[in-house]
Amino acid sequence: MDSLLTYENVEISFEKCPVVHDISFSLHEGEILALVGESGSGKSTLIRSALGLLNDNGKVTKGEISYKGTNLLSLREKELRQIRGAEIGMIFQDAKGSLCPIRTIGDQILESMCAHGKVNKAEAKVRSLELFEKLSFKDGEKIWNSYPFELSGGMNQRAGIAISMLLNPSILLADEPTSALDVAVQKQVVDEMLALRELFGTAIIIVTHDISVASAMADTVLVLKDGYKMEYGPAWDILHNPTNDYTKMLLSAVPRLKKRREIV
């Protein structure tokens, strides 16, 4: 099976100091890959590098990041902007912080969709409410008309997932999407991302320090420590029979979210 997204021997540096070292992995259609490790291990830096979202001091200094065979690192900003959102979507750790506080969710959805094609407000609303319903949102009309400060943190996070999926990207990058949520809302977010894979065949890379989230979602796991790859392979193997001492430490005394049964 051809890879959608491939990292080949990627090194990332800040102010010429390498912080991510020689990382290689592939993401295939419909696959869920969990990047696991403690804070500061390079997980978020890895996924942000694909979309050119490192800050001014950050740069990929070695290797290639390819999407459907095209090296993303060779693209100009204008070309990358066409892929960002439409082909590769992203959910941030603090969805509320990434939303404009003085504009409704509906207005922000419309702006996001208009950036990648011609769509009027009525069309955007219909598509949004249909997706809200598929993701089991209650009162989609109210969410469309709400400002971020009128919604809970969990609802903002769930709305952020919906916004990122309205362009039906092939890949969704999720940067610690459950870390600020309580356990009940975490499970909702996990179930919604699994539903996206089932409904649209979306491939997902989820960044998490929470082994229970990786256990509930992932097909494949990449374990990082201080920017180095510790283990990489099928989730079952790594989460149940780890060979690396660091992975064993992460797995110790961690509660697991139950993995949802696949819809046949």
From TrEMBL:
SMART domains: AAA (SM00382). Keywords: ATP-binding, Cell membrane, Membrane, Nucleotide-binding, Transport. Residues 5-251 form the ABC transporter domain. It comes from the Bacteria. It is found in: Cell membrane. It is a peripheral membrane protein. One of its GO terms (biological process) is peptide transport. Belongs to the ABC transporter superfamily. This is ABC-type dipeptide/oligopeptide/nickel transport system, ATPase component.
